[in-house]
Specification:
The protein is mainly α. Helix content is about 85%, strand content about 0%. Helix 2 runs antiparallel to helix 3. The two termini are about 20 Å apart.
């Protein structure tokens, strides 16, 4: 996700995306344990996107 895209989404959409990314991260952790991860860099990308979404949600809540 890019910063431009994140600024345009609503709080509800950000929460839905956050839930989806958390589920993806959970699944990647299991794949990592089992040795099935094909692209380990995706884990760090997902973590960064989660942090970005949490920031957007908190900004929209306080605004």
């Amino acid at each position: 996700m890019k910063k431009k895209d994140l600024k345009k989404i609503t709080k509800d959409q950000a929460i839905k995306d956050l839930d989806k990314l958390k589920k993806d991260l959970f699944n990647f952790r299991f794949q990592k344990i089992n040795g099935q991860v094909t692209n380990p860099s995706k884990i760090s990308i997902i973590k960064k996107n989660i942090a970005r979404l949490k920031t957007i949600i908190s900004r929209k809540t306080n605004a």
